[in-house]
Specification:
By secondary structure, the protein is an alpha+beta fold. It is built from 2 helices and 2 strands, in the order αββα. The protein has a two-stranded antiparallel sheet. It starts with 11 loop residues before the first helix and ends in a 13-residue tail after the last helix.
Length: 95
């Protein structure tokens, strides 16, 4: 997940950007397109996390909503271990 910005995860700016990214996802993981599970316990595969599309270590903007997406923890881990899975058809927000 690249280099960390000091104070990044516990900052007000990060908490605000994280909430906005989760709202923008309309309830779906932005990698696998399965529903996010808000009640999932932290550190489980279904927990909701926010991913930097362009990693911070590669110059990605830490708080820019265009560089953030809500994902399942399991999808986030897979992305950084083996890369992005093949794209899937995006579900309509009306579903």
């Amino acid at each position: 997940m690249g280099d960390r910005i000091p104070g990044h995860v516990d900052s007000t700016a990060w908490r605000r950007a994280r909430r906005a990214a989760i709202r923008q996802a309309n309830g779906y993981c932005q990698i696998c397109w399965h529903p996010l599970v808000p009640e999932a316990r932290a550190q489980t595969a279904w927990a909701t996390e926010v991913d930097h599309i362009v990693e911070l270590s590669k110059g990605g903007a830490p708080f820019d909503l265009d560089n953030l997406r809500a994902v399942h923890r399991g999808c986030h881990i897979q992305r950084h271990r083996v890369g992005e899975p093949p794209p899937q058809i995006k579900r309509s927000s009306a579903l």
